[in-house]
Design goal:
Order of helices and strands: HEEEEEEEE
Number of domains: 1
Shape: elongated
CATH architecture: Beta Barrel
Radius of gyration: 20 Å
Number of strands: 8
Strand order of the largest sheet: 1-2-3-4-5-6-7-8
Structural class: mainly beta
CATH class: Mainly Beta
Low-confidence stretches: 9-22
Strand content: over 45%
Helix content: 10-25%
Number of helices: 1
Largest sheet: 8 strands, antiparallel, barrel
Mean pLDDT: 86
Length: about 150
C-alpha cells in the first residue's frame, strides 16, 4: 500500500510540475506592417545613417490559437543598412504594453527579445526572429507570459 501511495504522489507531483513549468510558455508566429516616419538622414560617400520611428501593427498567433494584436512605435537607427531599435508593443485593446529590443542585418533578417512589460505583459520574456522587407515582415519565436 505504501508503494502505491508513493507512486501516485510521484505521478501527481510530476504532472503538477509539468503543468506549472509550461504555464505561459508559448511558441508563436507573427506578421506585421508599418512605415518608417520622422526620418533623419546623414549620407556622405559610402556612409549612410537613418534614424526615425517605425510605426505599425503586429499580430501574434500563439500556439494555442490566442491572438495578440499590438500597435507599435519603434525608435530606430540604421547605419549602412544595419539597424537597431526598441519597440513599445501596445495591446490594441488596452494600455498594456511589452518591450521588444531588436537588431536587423543588412540582409533583412532580424532577431529580437521581449524584455518585460506592463499589466498582463508584466514579466514577459521571449526570443523572436523574422524577416523585414520595406516595413512588412513575418517570423516566429517564443513569447512567455507569467
Amino acid at each position: 500500500m505504501f508503494k502505491l501511495k508513493t507512486i501516485i504522489i510521484t505521478v501527481l507531483a510530476t504532472m503538477i510540475f509539468a503543468k506549472i513549468s509550461s504555464a505561459g510558455h508559448h511558441q508563436m508566429t507573427m506578421m506585421y506592417g508599418g512605415e518608417f516616419t520622422n526620418m533623419n538622414v546623414v549620407a556622405n560617400g559610402d556612409h549612410m545613417s537613418v534614424s526615425g520611428a517605425f510605426i505599425g501593427t503586429n499580430r501574434m498567433t500563439m500556439e494555442n490559437g490566442d491572438v495578440i494584436q499590438t500597435n507599435f512605435m519603434c525608435p530606430a537607427l540604421f547605419i549602412n543598412g544595419d539597424g537597431n531599435g526598441t519597440c513599445k508593443m501596445k495591446d490594441a485593446k488596452s494600455e498594456d504594453f511589452w518591450v521588444l529590443v531588436w537588431h536587423c542585418g543588412v540582409d533583412g533578417q532580424c532577431k529580437g527579445d521581449a524584455v518585460n512589460g506592463t499589466g498582463r505583459f508584466e514579466g514577459v520574456t521571449g526570443k523572436m526572429s523574422w524577416w523585414n522587407d520595406s516595413g512588412w515582415g513575418e517570423g516566429s519565436g517564443t513569447f512567455i507570459m507569467k
